[in-house]
Amino acid sequence: MSYLPYWIAIWLLLVGLYGLVSSDNLIHMVICLSVVQSSTYVLLLAIGFRDHAAAPVFADIPAGSRAVDPVVQALTLTDIVVEATVVALMLALAVQAHKRFGTLDPAELNPLRG
Amino acid sequence: MNSLAPLPVVVGLLTAAFLAGAGRLLPRLLIDALSLVCALAMAALCALLLAHASHSAIVYWFGGFHPVHGVALGISFAIDPLGAGMATLAAVMVSAALLYSVRYFDEVGPLFSVLMLVFGAAMVGFCLTGDLFDFFVFFELMSVAAYALTAYKIEEAGPLQGAINFAITNSVGSFMMLTGIALLYGRTGALNMAQIGRSLAEHPADGLVTIALLLIMGGLLVKAAIVPFHFWLADAHAVAPVPVCVLFSGVMVELALYGFARVYWTTLASPLTPHAPGLRATLIGLGTLSALVGAVMCLAQRHLKRLLAFSTISHSGLFLIGVGLLTPAGLAASGGYVIEHAFLKGALFMAAGILLHRFGSVDEHELRGRGRERDPGLRAAGIVFTAGGLLLAALPPLGTFTGKAALETSLSEGPGYAWAIAVVVGASALTGGAILRAAGRVFAGWGPRVHPHHELLLETSERPETLQPHDHTPPVMIVPAVLLLAIGGAIGLVPGLSKSLAAAASRAVDGSAYATAVLGHAIGHRGAVPAPRLPLETLDFVLAALSVLGAVGVASVALAKRPYLRTSPLLTHAATSSLILLRRAQSGCVNDYIAWLVAGLAAIGTVLALT
User: Does A17 touch chain B (CB under 8 A)?
Assistant: First the structure.
């Protein structure tokens, strides 16, 4: 198997972090956060991938045939559920911030400083 | 006994689910009573597990998926005394916070209790689990509940910003940790910590394992508020409701350090043995930095909750120094220190909450002398603040004295880090001094009136929390504060505590015995427990006296009508401008925090790669 998925995972992680550091919009930041998390999906699935293997459902393929790792797929699903929770909460906070301050720029929110 | 293992988590989550569904139909009194009973039941179950785990480790396999021929596919709880002890502490603090919150809010929906119980159950699960992915899931559950609790007063400006900073920073930390876990799974094909440990122990660590360590450690250090990952903590603590702060400062931050010790000793310690000196230097360096930055920023605050938050950062640094020694003695010392600190810090936050409830403000200068009124609530708050400051500075033989003395002993016996004793004494003196200064100003009216536009105060543009002021303090707020203070003051004196801590730590660092308990048939621990030295030598008293006198000295310098110390203007200018620089770093803007996080991780990675 090629290393491409690993490079993609690293790219997603870095580009997501760049977005988080440079963003001036809360909604954009939440999306960047999910880009960072997408890198973990790609990484997990890449770890479990095997060449020329079927999906790990042994109902219609003979037992013992080559299949990809089902554990990482379960982990990815759990990961997606976790992300859904975090993103929903963050978007709720962003909506509230817009209502309260009329802006989505994190630098313009009434800052807690020092 | 084994089948009791998952009960504390199950009880917490089921009660939370029931209250989330039926809460609207129930009277508030019933909701409060039910959640309090649930939290107490969790604490009792955890204590029961602790009692049993101190004989032999408790391992519970969900769904009965036991390991076959030493290969684990199922998910397990693996409970040793360290984990059970932390779980008990978490559940006890949740109970205290729930009792305090009964009358703290003017109006509170059932969702507050629901979130507190989910938070508590997640913390307990985090302590008990033996599976690395579950470790992440409980960590994330704990985090999400914490974000929601921070933003509980979502109509107000501060909580919103605090929660956003908290949530974004910590989510990035969690994803780092998950990436590290994925790498370990890719290398070993296992998620059970014992199994990973066995599999990794066969080869010396390579780059992949080091990167996995870096990422997992990064995620946990963000949660542990270690400099330079600490910025979120002050923002979140300043604005979260007081009962929530009690849990954040008292348990959540320390749990991350417990998590680091757990993952390190069960999985990474043996392959990383050649890298241990570099890792030790990194961790103790980070701990020192946090202890000092936290202490200086603590002194610079006038917002009492923020002051306590920075004191937590400073203490978290001290705990990291103990854990980072990578010796059982250091781990045991930090464990004892964490327990004593949790109760004292909880009591201090509750006292700040009494002021907030009473006056609608926690600004030290605004409250100057207003705590002098004769009334039981303010009296109690004054006692808690004064005694809490002294006890946190390790007033012998009470408070943090035993934990701090054990930490100093382990540093003096450890490999070449005796200089860190000065950091422990200095940080205790500065944070204790800041609390005593606040106590003197608020409850005795001491100290000069500070002009609100004094140059060192300029940066504190944040408005203190506003709450409807009340005429009196309900007893159910006073009782938990005084109770926690008393427990925190006296718990170090419990006979046998340091011995059990030493035993717990020496079992926690024995990764192979852990693996045997989880995977093999042999249950129990092997190896003699080293006899702990009782921390009652003269030097311990001298060091404790130094930090207490230092704290009193710091407070009296800060409260003096006229400056006693005449320093050269150049020195004053340098100190002022470096403080202003330090405060500018705490910019309140989450982009900067992420940049610090990435830079910090890169720096730690470079150090680890070079050593």
Answer: yes
Residue B532 CA to residue B207 CA, distance in Å, equals 37
Question: Would you put residue B122 in left (φ > 0), alpha (ψ -120 to 50) or beta?
Answer: alpha
B68 three-state secondary structure: strand
Beta-carbon separation of A106 and B591 below 8 A: yes
Torsion of the alpha carbons at B53, B59, B62 and B68, rounded to the nearest 10: -170
Hey, CA dihedral for B111, B116, B119, B121, is it positive or negative?
negative
Q: What pLDDT is stored for residue B55 in this prediction?
A: 87
Please tell me the predicted confidence (pLDDT) of residue B467.
61
Distance from CA of A29 to the nearest CA of B (A): 8
* DSSP E strand stretches across B18-141: 58-61, 76-79
Cross-chain Cβ contact A114/B239 below 8 Å: no
Half-sphere exposure of A75 (CA within 13 A, CB side): 32
pLDDT tens figures, B555-592: 888 887 766 666 677 887 888 888 888 888 888 888 99
CB B339 within 8 A of CB B498: no
Backbone conformation region of residue B394, classed left if phi is above 0, alpha if psi is from -120 to 50, else beta: left
- What DSSP line would sit under A67-98, residue for residue? B--HHHHHHHHHHHHHHHHHHHHHHHHHHHHH
Residues B19, B20, B21, B22: is their CA dihedral positive or negative? positive
pLDDT less than 50: residues of chain B: 455, 457-464, 522-528, 535
- In chain A, which residue's Cα lies nearest the Cα of B166? A90
Nearest CB neighbour to A113, from listed B167, B171, B459:
B459
- For B328-366, the pLDDT digits (tens) are 999 999 999 999 999 999 999 999 999 988 888 888 888
SS3 B13: helix
pLDDT score recorded for residue A114: 53
Residue B462's pLDDT is 45
In this predicted structure, what is the pLDDT of residue B565?
63
In this complex, is the C-beta atom of A39 within 8 Å of any C-beta atom belonging to chain B? yes
Nearest-by-CA chain B residue for A81: B137
The pLDDT value recorded for residue B455 is: 47
Single out the residue of B232, B302, B236 nearest to residue B458, CA to CA.
B302
CA-nearest of B353, B465, B467, B381 to B102 is B353
Higher pLDDT pick, A111 / B129? B129
pLDDT reported for residue B37: 96
The C-alpha of B426 sits at a distance from chain A's nearest C-alpha, in angstroms, of 22
Q: Do B161 and A85 make contact, defined as CB atoms within 8 angstroms?
A: no
Structure tokens at B518: 């989880």
First to last CA, chain B: 45
Q: How far is CA A99 from CA A92, B64, B157, in A?
A: 11, 50, 10
Give the Cα separation of B552 and B432 in Å (integer): 8
Contact assignment for B179 to A40 by CB distance below 8 Å? yes
CB atoms within 10 A of CB B105: 17
A114 touches chain B (CB under 8 A): yes
